[in-house]
Each structure stands twice: as structure tokens, then as C-alpha cells.
Amino acid sequence: NLNSAAEIQKQLSEVALKGGQYLAGSVFLIGKGTFNFVVGFGVMLYLLFFLLKDGPYLVNLALEALPLSQHVKHHLFV
């Protein structure tokens, strides 16, 4: 029921405004997700490097901290 050019123009501008708002929100969410992924990936690589580098030392440190006898530790972790 669009009777005049003014009504058509009004409807088109409303649709364009809603579409622009949706697009802006989507771009923000995509950027936020990308940033979170990059930060998480960086933390993962950092931890992976040091766990591979110092892994055996950290395992021995954890085993020494356990209040168990050597015999029990050997059966649990070997």
C-alpha cells in the first residue's frame, strides 16, 4: 500500500537504516571474536613453548611435592 513516492522513500530509508545498524553490530561482533581468538591463540603458543621447554622439570617438581612414598609415586605415574 505504498501510494506515493514519499512513502516509498520513507520505507526505503527505514530499511537502509535498520540494515546499516545490523551490519555495524555484526562487524563489531566479528572484530571482537577475531581479537579474542588471536589473544587466546597467543597465550596457547606461549604456554606450549614453556611447557615443552620445561615439562620434565615441572613434572619432577610436582612429583616431589606429593606427600607419597617413591613406591606409590612410581606406580601412579609410570
TrEMBL record:
The chain crosses the membrane at residues 33-52. It comes from the Bacteria. Keywords: Membrane, Transmembrane, Transmembrane helix. This is AI-2E family transporter.
